[in-house]
Amino acid sequence: MRCPWLLLSAAGAALSAFTCANAQTSPSSTTSTNAAATLSRKDLGAGNLPADQVVINPKCAAVEISVREDVGVRVVCRDPGTSITPFTSVVGQYVEVRNRQGSKVTVAPCDDVGLRFLVFGNHDDYIAKAQISIDPTSFSGLTSLNALIFDNINLEKPQLQVTIPAGLGRLEVVSTNVLGLSLRASGTPSISTFNFRDTAMTALPAALYERQYKSKLQVNNLKVSPLEDVQQLNATQYANAIANLNTTALAQASNVDFVGDCSDATKAASGRLAVCRSANPRTTKPDTGSSKATASPFSSAPTTSPPGPPSTTNTGLIIGLVCAALVLAALAWFFIRRRNARRAQKQAMEEETLTFVNGDGTLSPTSSATWEARTTTLSAPDVAPLRVPMADLVLGSEISQGAFGRVYRGSFQGEKVALPYTVNGQPMRDEAIIARVSMGTLKVSFSSGADPAVVSLARECMAMAPADRPSAAVVAERMLQLCRK
């Protein structure tokens, strides 16, 4: 059984870990077997705040909970047709909400201005995790809250956005399904400490760079499982991160490195995340946001005890489910990729039936709206002068032949070139060449003496995703600039 009890020292400033052996539990007089919850008070010893432990009735699949100034803690079972009665009880400054059966817990607006510590967690490690649902009003009214902890539970939205009271000092996201974290607050938050133990985020958490805090942050147990090994931040975000974090200490305690300006050479070491500054940062995949690392002792804020031994049954089940999901995803990817490749191949072969009707490379009209649009682009006034007329190309001997066409030696204005043709001997259309490149059946290479700017432009034009290719006007302008050099 986990014991994440939080202690307040006699001076009211120092907090430390505590064990179950020192805690004395006394049942609440409001306990009822048919109520939505029970309450027990744990005496944590002289000089420490007592902890009010609210345990959700395992018969209740969906509950709503709030901590209110007028009634204290209130738990309502939301199961249709339930006979379970709402639970209400006065509580002190430290409340733990414990799940016993994987309930779905909705946190309603809380406004108890006397509440200082609030914990959501599991009653023990070997039962289904609760699913917590929050909204912007859940915690914003807890103006005296010092520590907010999510421990060994799941959040309904793994990309977690929490609206916190400005005075919150510590946020723990421990052993959860959270992938990213962003904070909202009125004014500049006073938060100084984060703990991300056993929570595998996919990027540096936005909470660490979306604003500048009043002082340097203490970030415990951050270790990212990145979707990409390089994370780009804009100049403001990067400056915020540098102001908020001791990046040297963070690099030593985690797998996150801050490397300055982004460049084509920016890379991360194996298993690490490189964070760089970019004028035009790309969006990080989601699942966008991030986190966990080496533990550092913390004696000035609420904490949790080390986890107990994992359940063999649960571990085996989880591994089996993960493996099955990976196999299904791989099969789906394979069939989708094969289907798309066949479609692209079919389209390319259909387009190859078009033939040239004159020496300048102009194609005869077709009934295809797609081809008409592409012909318009290729024949645009700013592009047409830059195209090579077919009449100026001299065809030579065949270099190679394959299932998708032939390549011939040739020359243009005295320079050697390679000319791709279809299997039936027709010059290969521009669109067919692009389709071959996209499918990987036609490789493009450049001589060692090729102008780097020309090579760069050519590679952009052959990008796999059409949205990543420059427009005809952009290509024409860049080619004109190259010709003027």
Automatic annotation (TrEMBL):
Q: Keyword annotations for this protein?
A: Membrane, Signal, Transmembrane, Transmembrane helix
Q: What is this protein called?
A: TKL protein kinase
UniProt xrefs under PANTHER family: SERINE/THREONINE-PROTEIN KINASE TNNI3K-RELATED (PTHR44329)
Name the Gene3D superfamilies on file.
Phosphorylase Kinase, domain 1 (3.30.200.20)
Instruction: Classify the source by domain of life.
Output: Eukaryota
Q: Where is this region: Disordered?
A: 278-311
GO MF, any single term? protein serine/threonine kinase activity
Asked if the keyword Signal belongs to this entry, the reply reads yes
Q: Does the keyword DNA repair apply?
A: no
The signal peptide stretch is 1-23
- Low complexity composition-biased segments: 289-303
Which organism is this entry from? Pythium insidiosum (Pythiosis disease agent)
Q: Which residues cross the membrane?
A: 316-336
